[in-house]
Amino acid sequence: MFFWEELKNQIALKLEEKELSFTYPPDLSLGDLSLACFITAKKNNIKPQEQATLWASKLQTDEIIAAYFSKIEAIGPYVNFFLKTDILAKRVLADINNTKDEYGFRSLTEKETVMLEYSNGNTHKEYHVGHLRNISYGDSMSNLLEANGYEVIRVSYINDFGIHTAKTIWNWKNNPEYANRKEPKGFLLGQCYTQASQRLSERPEYKMEVAKIMHEIESRFGESYDLWKETRAWSIAYFASIYEELGIKFVKTFYESEVIDEGLEMVDTLLKRGILKESEGAIIADLEADGLGVLPIIRSDKTALYPVADLALAVNKFSLYDLSASYYVVDIRQSLYFKQLFRVLELLGYKQRLVHLPYDFVTLPEGMMSSRSGNVITYRDLKDKIKNELEKETRIRHEDWKTKEVAQVAEDLTIAVIKFEMLKVGADKQIVFNIEEALRFDGYTACYLEYSHARLRSIIRKEGASYFAGKVDFNLLTEQKEKELLLKLAKYPEVLLLAGEKKNPSEIARYIFELAQISNDYYHAINILKAEKKMKKARLSLIKGVVVTLRSGFKILGLPILEEM
């Protein structure tokens, strides 16, 4: 248990209350921690001010509790606590030193294994900026759940069997120049799909040709099926290269083509059990009684819809892994669909927790994107544009660096920029991806965070590891900004817990930004390296605690950690 949580528990134990409402004063002059007295006062049928006075008096006379604080006082309906800075520093920095990169991490009393399914891309299509929100959110949520004690199995589900594959293959066949172009084949397939969609919207008579190709693919025989297999492999290899660049690893990848037949068999079983029924030649799940409307399963032309593969996929997950919960990271448009899908699985008898983690759209400053219309920023274009700008900036800052060093820093920083832009906003809010804003070094950006970390690391490197050996006199940390930093560090474990409960990595993004701001203010206001030896040691210990906590936050968000910039 970390210091902040332990302290609150001790106060609750002394006051003989199971749950207390702690808050933080808006200004440090009012205290470091506040205890609201409204609920207990109402229960005791007294005024909150009286309850605050009673509690303050009781805590002031307790030797164990009072030892932590320079002052405990009742102010209106609150008990305000003023922590002793040396004790705060000693305990919080000890927590950080003892746990290092896992500062704030916790264990569950009972092991829970959960699966996160994310990066549900489509072969034969563009990998664009919208997909990046899915993969960044899914990977960060996996890290966040692991930090909160869960065993997390990361999987991806790829739609490799839909009508989009037939459209792409149709256009590829009709445009031989694609085969001669030098770009990566997986990238070219996305461009081919966009062109196919545009051509088919202009000439719908070609749709019969596409339908014929789709039939060949579904029958798993013929020239189009062979080309599907070849082009599918190109897409999968292209996705793998993107995952490697982003530092994403999956335990397993599921493919629609591998579960669709099993799904069709399940439909027959569900019909016999009465969970599904026929309606005007189609097969549906009638969920009106649950307030969820109707979920189409098989069209009247007997072609399968998404639920066929998704039902089989869920059954596969539960048979392969002992899961307590299965999370699906899919955009907000599919919210009703997942409620319907989960209800059908409940009717099948599955008791595992099924959770849809929705996220809103990523748009461009000029509006919405569509892979059909070609109005997208592809991953490759976005990455190249950002990296080119960051290489220019890095060369200006480090004229003495070799080309390889510049390229590596620009590469890592590019990935940090992309991911942070996807995570700094809550999943329930839309993102407008503005490249110029994302590349600023003086705002709520990855560039600002990475630079803040690199500068603090350079301070520590100048002194070396030996400087941290032996005792530290924390009584020397008397500056207000030092206490502000220590209080911020103390709160990190509860931020991790809250972010995990809310399924919201943006809480971590906001925290590390605020920590970087406070540390930058401290760096500019307080002399660290030129201080007297004992003072310098205490201040360097504080800086080290900040660095470790920033690195932990970076890892939760999946950001590369830059040592120099």
Name its key features.
22 helices; 565 residues; four-stranded antiparallel sheet; Gyrase A, domain 2; 14 strands; Rossmann fold; five-stranded parallel sheet; 3 domains
Describe this structure in words.
The strands form four sheets. The protein has a five-stranded parallel beta sheet with strand order 7-6-5-11-12, with helices on both faces. It has helices at residues 3-15, 38-44, 48-60, 63-66, 85-99, 129-147, 163-174, 177-180, 185-202, 207-219, 223-246, 256-273, 306-320, 335-347, 379-397, 403-423, 435-438, 446-463, 480-490, 492-502, 506-525, 533-557; strands at 21-23, 33-36, 69-75, 78-83, 113-117, 151-158, 252-255, 277-279, 282-286, 294-298, 325-329, 353-357, 362-363, 431-432. The relative contact order is 0.11. It folds into three domains: 3-83, Gyrase A, domain 2 (2-Layer Sandwich); 118-255 and 317-363, 3-Layer(aba) Sandwich (Rossmann fold), CATH 3.40.50; 416-557, Isoleucyl-tRNA Synthetase, Domain 1 (Orthogonal Bundle). The radius of gyration is 28 Å and the shape is globular. Helix 5 (85-99) crosses helix 19, helix 6 crosses helix 20 and helix 7 crosses helix 9. The model has no long low-confidence stretch (mean pLDDT 94). It is of the alpha/beta class and 565 residues long. The protein is built from 22 helices and 14 strands.
